[in-house]
Amino acid sequence: MKATLAALAIASAQLAAAHYTLPDLIVNGTTTADWLYVRTTQNHYSNAPITDVNSTEFRCYELDMNATPGQTSIATVEAGSTIGFKGTLIRDNAFYHPGYFSAYMSPASPAANSPEAGTGRTWFKIWEDPPVYENGQLVFPSQTMNEITFTIPKSLPSGQYLVRAEQIALHVASSVGGAQFYLGCAQLNVVNGGNGNPGPLVSIPGVYTGYEPGILINIYDLPPNYPGYTSPGPAVWRG
Q: Is the pLDDT of residue 17 over 50?
């Protein structure tokens, strides 16, 4: 019995170590503390992904959808500045799961620390890092990274926002529900913005069905005449 329990404990530890979280917001090169500006996610202990793209938890995967927003601080950043997310409990200091990274933003009404923020068709994509198709196979640049950074469009209007980082891990994505989503939502107050009109707008959940060719894919056995990776979701708004 003791041997069995020990084996289960080791297996559980290995499972937790096989995934990661995105708890740290990066602002102009400075990495902030865990969960200071990023809403604490349900997997902050287990590191397990979310796989149901239709779940309301898919939006920000908060530990508590009602309480967590108000327990999280709001970071003030300038439009046009560089922000990002750093991962923790990653292996070999890198996001080792092969996948597709993207970042979405949504105006936050009535405030970035409100549970109601981002609950409508308000989200738009501002950045992506898709795999590259070379020599008959997909190459994943993000597998050598331990953080992602991107620019807030300079023309984004001032105001409070949520910014949502997402990796779609594709190592077991050959069946529906196999893709693993690692995500985090940070709370922002954007200043010195412009008069841009972000879009196209989508809802989260609702942005994916799970059947998109960039989500339902066997990356180890690509079909003949494969055209290259197709990014799921809307086009990137660059301002």
A: no
Of 205, 206, 213, nearest to 232 by C-alpha is 213
106, 217 Cβ separation under 8 angstroms: no
At 127-141, the pLDDT tens digits run 999 999 999 999 998
Q: Is the peptide bond before 200 cis (omega within 30 degrees of 0)?
A: yes
Q: How many residues does the chain have?
A: 239
CA–CA gap between residue 13 and residue 11 (Å, rounded): 5
Closest CA to 13 of 46, 43, 42, 44: 46
Q: Residue 17 in 3-state DSSP? A: helix
pLDDT of residue 91: 67
Residue pLDDT, tens place only, 68-112: 999 999 999 999 999 999 998 666 667 889 999 999 999 999 999
| Spatial contact of 160 and 190, defined as CB atoms under 8 Å apart | yes
Instruction: State the residue for tokens 């084996």.
Output: 7
User: Which residue matches tokens 């009602």?
Assistant: 66
* SS3 state of residue 10: helix
Q: Report d(CA 232, CA 208) in Å as an integer.
A: 7
Task: Report which of 22, 17, 18, 19 is spatially closest to residue 35, judged by C-alpha positions.
Answer: 22
Q: What is the secondary structure of 73-126 as a DSSP string? A: --EEEETT-EEEEEEES-BTTB--S-EEEEEEEEE-SS-TTSTTTT-SS-BEEE
